Amino acid sequence: MRMKIGVLSDTHLHGVPGDFEDIYKQYLSDADLILHAGDFVSSAIINFLSIKDFQGVHGNMDPLDVRETLPRKKIINLGPRRLGLIHGWGSSEGLEDRIISEFQGVDIIVYGHSHKPANHMKEGIFFFNPGTASGYTRSGIHSIGILHLDDAVHGEIVHI
């Protein structure tokens, strides 16, 4: 199974501005699946991303309508692989150690919250955080992620 998955988190947008549409067109429009790991801040982003196959979870900054629409965490079956999707909570320090306990039997964990990209293996699980496409970042660098699934899992952090 060969698959391209576009990954977003922490967009913190109250609407769908033109530059977000441009990011979608340039990097995500050809994806087989779009994931968002929470902190949309507006259901407008959910509606926009839902034009394709879309899966998402809510984050700590999401309003009630988003929390009622999307779960806190979910497992997505992608052929032989199981992917855990969650936002995260608390300090960036130890975040992966906290979220790993939320899932059993997953091969991949996609998360957000920290606004810091991550793309690595840990304890036999592929951890992936796309960073923030449009929210606050100390480095000033915004990013999204692309997961490529074939015989293996390959993550790509795209600076935008």
- Measured distance between first and last alpha carbons: 28 Å
The largest pleated sheet is described as: 5 strands, mixed
Q: What fraction strand?
A: 25-35%
- Can you give the mean pLDDT? 95
Helicity level, as a percent range?
A: 10-25%
Give me the secondary-structure category: alpha/beta
**SSE order, one letter for each helix or strand:** EHEHEHEEHEEEEE
Rg result: 14 Å
Architecture per CATH nomenclature, i.e. the level-2 architecture = 4-Layer Sandwich
Q: What is the subunit organization of this protein?
A: single chain
Placed side by side, the strands forming the largest sheet appear as 3-2-1-9-10
The CATH superfamily is Metallo-dependent phosphatases
Short description:
By secondary structure, the protein is α/β, with parallel strands linked by helices. The chain contains four helices and ten strands, in the order βαβαβαββαβββββ. It is globular and about 40 Å long.
Folded structure, characterized:
The structure is a single chain. The protein has helices spanning 18-28, 43-49, 64-69, 95-100; strands at 3-8, 33-36, 54-56, 73-78, 81-86, 108-110, 118-122, 125-129, 143-149, 153-159. Helices cover 19% and strands 32% of the residues. The longest helix has 11 residues, at 18-28. The two termini are 28 Å apart. The protein is an alpha/beta fold and 160 residues long. The protein has a 5-stranded mixed beta sheet, with no helix packed on it. The chain has a 5-stranded mixed beta sheet with strand order 4-5-6-8-7. It has one domain (3-159): Metallo-dependent phosphatases (Purple Acid Phosphatase, chain A, domain 2).
